[in-house]
Amino acid sequence: MAEENMKHCGDKGRYSPLVSFSRGVNSLCEVVLFVLMLAMIATTTAQVLCRMFTQALTWSEELTRFLLVTVSLIGAAVAFYRGSHIAVTFLVEKLPGVLRTALFLVMQAAGVGFFAILARYGWVLMEQEASQMTPALGLSMKLLYGQFPVFSAVVVLHLLAGIELFLRGGRD
Questions:
Q1: Concatenated DSSP letters for 45-62?
Q2: pTM for this model (two decimals)
């Protein structure tokens, strides 16, 4: 939605720092998403080939699982930026403009609240599990659980930028 709103915002290409930062973070997320997807494909392919011709890679399944979680989180953040999440809008579209705006703002605020809570509890979990290590890779679980507050913050950024764009005249 933010991407679509940026195209239709009446400000002739000038955006606030919040909207510009959201756009830049999303561009970075898209690149990282692409690279991690390639890494996941390469790791899975290497595992299959090694099982067929030599020994299984003991670390590859764990790495693929962790990459899948990371890719899912980054993909969700990109989807929030683009407004690509599934939605049932036929009732909302029938509402008058003022009610539609109010409902949009309530839903965005609920999203901000949800992801703020997820970020907070992701942080708590990250701190509690900091001493744990992954079995095959030997990585700190702090690194893995730390993804939740980071990508929750990215989604909150995109939601806030979407609110700004909506209020400045972008399409919902």
A1: HHHHHHHHHSPPPTTHHH
A2: 0.84
